[in-house]
């Protein structure tokens, strides 16, 4: 077990804290990774919130942990680590002084400041941390998206934090990077000679990266309607996944080498503007439809507005202009209220160069590697093989499956737990560097501008489907189809 640490959750009674951070810390406790005397200091907005905090923590654990994970005796001991305090982040004064006194009871220990608050108050929060001498070589700040609305606002946020924290102490979370299969993607790529040799434009036909969700707005209408799917999902999660698929092998598995390789990919993304955006992107918005036999409302109904041009779905074709990926299309797709919840990377290989089995031996399907990140985490490789049910020479695709929950019985993935513990131990390799944020926005901004200039409304799709037909047409133009889960 490591040394005790303190984690301060700014926005301790917010949705993110209850849904993700608290369950992640509980799991850390259950795995002996929250050493005795470590403190979870949760900032509440007022006394009422503070008084009821521990009972809300308990409810949150019961609600958000997976089946069988909640144990009341563990939850009780975990709660002893939790210290709710009242703090008005924007107001200096007595409350901040009490926070400083509380933290200074252990002045030498690692402190993680988790900013689970709107970016508009990141600056003032960091300023107060600095003013009360709470920033030193043991402290780190963890920041959550949205990191800006475009390149300029992201830069302004990063500048503000950088006034008080060194880049090496800033941990920008993209929770997709904490998913075990995402890390496994790097392990797969960089430790297997078969993939090392077969990972470029010579062998790979195209790549699909798709994150489909079945949920709608989940009470985040205000934020989401401003952001839309491109900013909410593509700028961060999808581009990060694309980087991991496309990057060169880092010289070492450390933060600076990995980040440097990711930045090169982002820099090589072919910029799009005007007509290209029209040709290579599809925007969609869901209308009411059926999900698992239940009628679910459309976006505008959920929003309670007569009109909105915000996209809840994006599909796009991207190119990476470098030697490895020349002319290989990368199709990215994400949407709310789609048919199934699934995050998947599909590496579609080329066909064999010469067909030796002629006659009636069956169609040849190219090899395909499917890395599924959720709901279950698995890797599947489709190979062609002989059909063993017949003496005739018939070929058929066969799947090699690695299902992590079957193989690793105790495997319980929690991206937030992983990332918080990494921040505690100062391992920033799964966090985003400021340069990555800047490059990602530099690619995204012109797409948004082109959409705005064209003033084109999103294509409608029924909730419970795979998105608008235009998304299928995007791939059909190149002779492909989306690999749809389930
Ligand atoms: C968040 C987005 O970053 O990721 C949400 O803001 C989205 O809109 C969520 O629902 C998806 O995360 P996961 O891990 O559930 O796929």
Automatic annotation (TrEMBL):
Pathway assigned to this chain's UniProt record: Carbohydrate degradation; pentose phosphate pathway; D-ribulose 5-phosphate from D-glucose 6-phosphate (oxidative stage): step 1/3
Residue ranges annotated for the Glucose-6-phosphate dehydrogenase NAD-binding domain, each copy included: 8-184
- Give binding positions for substrate: 175, 179, 213, 232, 336
The entry's NADP(+)-binding residues are: 45, 88-89, 145
Task: Give one Pfam family.
Answer: G6PD_N
This protein's source sits in the domain of life called Bacteria
Role noted for this protein? Catalyzes the oxidation of glucose 6-phosphate to 6-phosphogluconolactone.
Which family, according to the similarity comment?
A: Belongs to the glucose-6-phosphate dehydrogenase family.
Question: Under what name is this protein listed?
Answer: Glucose-6-phosphate 1-dehydrogenase
Q: Which organism is it from?
A: Zhongshania aliphaticivorans
Q: Upper lineage ranks?
A: Bacteria, Pseudomonadati, Pseudomonadota, Gammaproteobacteria, Cellvibrionales
């Amino acid at each position: 077990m490591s040394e005790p640490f303190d984690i301060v959750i700014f926005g301790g009674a917010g949705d993110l804290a209850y849904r993700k951070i608290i369950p992640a810390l509980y799991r850390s406790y259950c795995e002996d990774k929250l050493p005795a005397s470590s403190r979870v200091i949760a900032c509440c907005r007022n006394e009422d919130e503070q008084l009821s905090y521990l009972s809300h923590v308990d409810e949150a654990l019961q609600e958000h942990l997976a089946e069988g994970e909640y144990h009341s005796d563990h939850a009780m001991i975990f709660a002893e680590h939790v210290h709710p305090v009242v703090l008005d982040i924007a107001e200096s004064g007595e409350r901040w002084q009490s926070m400083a006194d509380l933290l200074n009871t252990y002045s030498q220990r690692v402190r993680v400041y988790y900013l689970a608050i709107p970016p508009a108050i990141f600056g003032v929060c960091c300023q107060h941390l600095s003013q009360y001498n709470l920033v030193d070589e043991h402290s780190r700040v963890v920041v959550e998206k949205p990191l800006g609305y475009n390149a300029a606002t992201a830069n302004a946020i990063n500048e503000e934090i950088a006034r008080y924290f060194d880049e090496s102490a800033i941990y920008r979370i993209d929770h997709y990077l904490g998913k075990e299969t995402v890390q496994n993607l790097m392990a797969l790529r960089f430790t297997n000679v078969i993939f090392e040799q077969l990972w470029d434009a010579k062998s790979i036909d195209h790549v699909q990266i798709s994150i489909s969700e079945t949920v709608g707005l989940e009470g985040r209408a205000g934020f989401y309607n401003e952001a839309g799917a491109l900013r909410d999902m593509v700028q961060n999660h999808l581009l990060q996944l694309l980087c991991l698929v496309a990057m060169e092998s880092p010289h070492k598995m450390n933060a600076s080498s990995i980040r440097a390789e990711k930045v090169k990919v982002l820099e090589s993304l072919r910029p799009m503007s005007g007509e290209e955006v029209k040709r290579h992107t599809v925007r969609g918005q869901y209308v009411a439809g059926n999900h698992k036999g239940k009628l679910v409302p459309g976006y505008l109904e959920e929003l309670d507005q007569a009109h909105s041009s915000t996209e809840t779905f994006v599909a796009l074709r991207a190119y990476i202009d470098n030697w490895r990926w020349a002319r290989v299309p990368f199709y990215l797709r994400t949407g709310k209220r789609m048919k199934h919840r699934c995050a998947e990377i599909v590496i579609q290989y080329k066909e064999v160069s010469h067909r030796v089995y002629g006659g009636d031996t069956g169609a040849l399907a190219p090899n395909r590697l499917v890395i599924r990140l959720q709901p279950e985490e698995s890797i599947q490789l489709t190979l062609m093989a002989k059909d063993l049910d017949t003496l005739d020479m018939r070929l058929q695709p066969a799947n090699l499956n690695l299902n992590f929950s079957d193989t690793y019985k105790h495997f319980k993935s929690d991206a937030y737990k992983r990332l918080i513990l990494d921040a505690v131990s100062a391992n920033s390799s799964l966090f985003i560097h400021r340069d990555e944020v800047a490059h990602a926005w530099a690619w995204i901004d012109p797409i948004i501008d082109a959409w705005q200039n064209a003033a084109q409304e999103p294509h409608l799709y029924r909730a419970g489907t795979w998105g608008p037909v235009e998304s299928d047409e995007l791939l059909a133009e190149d002779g492909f189809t989306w690999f749809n889960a389930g």
